[in-house]
Amino acid sequence: MLTLLSTPSWIILIIAAAAIGLAKTALPGAATLAVALFATVLPAKESTGTMLVLLLVGDVLAIIMYRRDADWGTLRRLVPGVLAGVVLGALFLRLASDEATKRFIGVLLIALIAITLLLMRLPRPPQLQGRVGRAVYGTLAGFTTMAANAGGPVTTMYFLASRFSVLTFLGTTAWFYFIVNLVKLPFSIGLGIIRPDTLWVDLALVPVVVVAALGGRWLAAHMNNQVFDPLVTVLTVLSAAYLLV
């Protein structure tokens, strides 16, 4: 595969790998750009497998950088809902086509983002860390991750509504997606999505992810919540809208 890719294709893949590094250490939601770019260069299965390995590399870098900043209480409380959502997502996949799944989840995410932003603007915003909030957001995160690899917007809005600092947000997100992507890894290998030829592409792109992640770490250190929250919100909306295109 390394020799079959043209120079323009490699340029696109490099930009996508940089987006993954930035998404993991500074700008959650930027990974959607990587999804779109990878899909323009590689076939669907190869694209998914190649990205998963790079996402895991980014996850490990993010954990190293933000290992002391995660809110473990929040992560533990989300687990039951996420597991239930994964089961529901698997059942949904048996009934719906790929196109219908993407459109349905796109509409669902846009509605969730709008509702979350509305709740955050209320004079007395509800506590989403309560049982109902954890159940709803955890289940939706598991469902959308399983059905369309689109759990990012759900967890992003949940962590924003939880009023995390920039570093706590990034640390909690890093551990959440590392665990989720690690669970996906053996399934991807078993399905033949990750193969030796895709690993060679990953090996070529790993340095780009590392450099972009380091740049993202610097960027995150110079951002406060007044800049971070609106920027992440815009990227999250674009992530959800991408599924509707």
Note the main attributes of this structure.
TM_pro_TauE-like, transport, TSUP, Probable membrane transporter protein, 10 helices, membrane, 245 residues, mainly alpha
Walkthrough of the structure:
The chain has 245 residues and is mainly alpha-helical. Helix content is 81%, strand content 0%. It is globular and about 60 Å long. The protein starts with 6 loop residues before the first helix and ends with a helix.
Distance between the termini: 28 Å
Question: β content, as a range?
Answer: under 5%
Shape: globular
Characterize the largest beta sheet: strand count, sense, and whether it forms a barrel: none
Q: What is the arithmetic mean of pLDDT?
A: 85
Helix segment tally: 10
Q: Which radius of gyration do the C-alpha atoms yield?
A: 17 Å
Tell me the helix content: over 70%
Integer tally of domains: 1
Low-confidence stretches: none
Assembly category: single chain
Give, in order, the helices and strands: HHHHHHHHHH
Class from secondary-structure proportions? mainly alpha
Total beta strands:
0
Element layout with pairings:
Blueprint: H1 7-25, H2 31-41, H3 44-66, H4 72-95, H5 98-121, H6 131-148, H7 152-161, H8 166-190, H9 196-221, H10 225-242
GO cellular component, one term: plasma membrane
Membrane topology: Multi-pass membrane protein
Subcellular location: Cell membrane
